């Protein structure tokens, strides 16, 4: 492996705090934050919206081709922020952070976001059933997946600190002395 920095997936049910975590981590680490939802929308990597759930039906081939064209696999230093994770090839990914949230907190956040009816119910169920965590565990090695709570600001700060320490350790384990020190 020649990457100078790890690639990190921040995943979880909508509303758990992916974007908040990803933005802070990217800022602190000098990494590139890729909001996959935003890319799918901006680049039209979709076939419209699913009528039932209102989510984009993603064209995964186009999305992966696009990601492949970035320096993600060559240099690392990317934070991928999405509510799914099993799409990303294992070889690209060094850490998968699955954020978790209690029902009451998540309900309030999603209602605030304007979710209601079936969409609200499906997302609440998905969190309770830990759908994203199971997907992460099925797709990546045991040491790659970490489950972190994201209820309050203290959690956010603690989680960001933990991931930053993990990045330091990754660099220590993966970069030989004399190789690149700078961010990527
Ligand atoms: P996601 O990207 O997973 O949909 P967001 O990062 O947009 O979630 O967070 C949803 C809302 O919850 C935002 O208003 C955010 O400020 C808040 N939030 C998320 N995580 C935390 C946390 N750990 N502490 C306090 N507020 C949080």
UniProtKB/TrEMBL annotation:
It catalyses: ATP + H2O = ADP + phosphate + H(+); AMP + ATP = 2 ADP. GO terms for cellular component: cytoplasm; nucleus. Residues 112-122 are annotated as: LID. InterPro entries: Adenyl_kinase_AK6, P-loop_NTPase. Its EC number is 2.7.4.3. Its main location: cytoplasm. One of its GO terms (molecular function) is AMP kinase activity. Keywords: ATP-binding, Cytoplasm, Hydrolase, Kinase, Nucleotide-binding, Nucleus, Ribosome biogenesis, rRNA processing, Transferase. Belongs to the adenylate kinase family. AK6 subfamily. Broad-specificity nucleoside monophosphate (NMP) kinase that catalyzes the reversible transfer of the terminal phosphate group between nucleoside triphosphates and monophosphates. Has also ATPase activity. Involved in the late cytoplasmic maturation steps of the 40S ribosomal particles, specifically 18S rRNA maturation. While NMP activity is not required for ribosome maturation, ATPase activity is. Associates transiently with small ribosomal subunit protein uS11. ATP hydrolysis breaks the interaction with uS11. This is Adenylate kinase isoenzyme 6 homolog. It comes from Polyplosphaeria fusca.
